[in-house]
Amino acid sequence: MNIKNKALLRKESYINGEWVSTKNNKTFGVVNPFDQSNLANVADLDRAAISKAIECAENALPSWKAKSATERSIILKKWYQLQMDNLDDLGTILTLEQGKPLAEAKGEIAYGASYVEWFAEEAKRAYGDVIPGHQADKRIIVLKQPIGVVATITPWNFPNAMITRKVAPALAAGCTVVIKPSEITPLSALALAELADQAGIPPGVLNVVTSNDAIMVGDEFTSNPKIKKISFTGSTRVGKLLMEKSAGTLKKLSLELGGNAPFIVLNDADLEEAVTGAIAAKYRNSGQTCVCANRIFVQEEVYDAFVEKFTVEVKKLNTGNGMDADNQIGPLINEAAVEKVASMVKDAKEKGAELTTGGGHGNQGKNFFDTTVITNIDASMLVMKDEIFGPVAPIVKFKTDDEVIAMANNTEYGLASYFYGNDLKRVWRIAEALEYGMVGINTGLISTPVAPFGGIKESGMGREGSRYGMEDYLEIKYLCFGGI
Ligand code: ADP
After folding, report:
1. Is residue 188 part of a domain?
2. Is the confidence at residue 362, as pLDDT, over 90?
3. How far is the CA of 222 from the centre of ligand 1 (A)?
4. Distance CA 323, CA 314 (A)
5. Nearest residue (CA) to ligand 1, atom 17
6. 394-453: per-residue pLDDT in tens?
7. Do residue 240 and residue 385 come from a single domain?
8. Do residues 361 and 338 make contact, with C-beta atoms less than 8 angstroms apart?
9. Which of 67, 176, 251, 364 is the most buried (most CB within 10 A)?
């Protein structure tokens, strides 16, 4: 692998400040989704090792939470700085194991690091409250304290940022963490652990456990009473499973689950801007994000013009190896992902949808699917109900605001939504009516560490980023003083 800082390439798990392999050297392979070449064989831990990591995190908790917020902040800032210093190498590792174009991968590293910087600052602002007492001799004070040991489970689509978004606020709050990265993309997580070590995060405070057996790790995380909270990003199916399994020990949960984002273009929208926003919201990471525009709704007066302009721009996107700077679209994560996207397009075509571009597999390799635009969509098609997670854009025509609001909300999901329009009153009405945790208005890009990212309905619970993101890792305790 062509990187400058070879120390970032780790194949063992990181537990209690040490690099750990398995007794029998059991490993699992990490492959490049572009050409399926093997990148590394990574330690495949057993359940005893996962349990040990949790124990180490618990042992490290008292001294980590006893540090002043400023002390934790200084260490987190070092970790942030090291991530920025190693941005190119971290980006290369990310592209090789995940497939996204290098420029996007580097963007993710800077974005991921920005959460560490943000929460290094927020550590100092975990304010409590003073409440006027309910009786003359009483005084009430509210404290915020760290929840305890936190387990994180993260997906392959953002192998870096989904981790820092959870770990930075957890550490800032005074929690310790056990991180389980996706088995498809563990290398970015291990590189982060190496930098955490260099930054002086004490042994046991941040642990990364690698395993090819997600169910086993999930079982240990959910049943181990030492874990007080699980923060998960991934599918709604697995999120529900974790919630069910956590009931026995009543763990706190943050769940960032699937989405089915509507992207609405009103008849008074700036069409050029709407096309640019739709491209960004749809095709980033080859369509493999939970906030990707899943259903594009365009008002009838501007429908034809939008479809034409959008298709022209989609055709300009180059697909290929993410390491090649000319490409804006990389491979999908694996063949199963390609098959799922292909079957959704097939279903739509069988039910009467029409292609304005794409629809095939291209000639780049087995993990690729062409950038695709489909029209003549109806509600029975899978593309309207399920998360597409690929470079396919279905465009639907609508007549009235009420109609599009009803269609947009007609899903069990409630993560991101977007719309373009310029009438102030309509903008307010639609923004308030959309049943989503996030609404992008005249923008297709909404993610930032300063805002509360998260969903409602079956898209999950909890928020990441902003001052609200700290709350997910803090408990409330009140002190009632009497006899004053
Ligand atoms: P995706 O479709 O994005 O891969 P998943 O929900 O399958 O979403 O995976 C997200 C993360 O959840 C990954 O780290 C994966 O290993 C993990 N995971 C998958 N199944 C389970 C499970 N039963 N228990 C715990 N973690 C799981």
Report:
1. yes
2. no
3. 14
4. 20
5. 214
6. 999 999 999 999 999 999 999 999 999 999 999 999 999 999 999 999 999 999 999 999
7. no
8. yes
9. 176
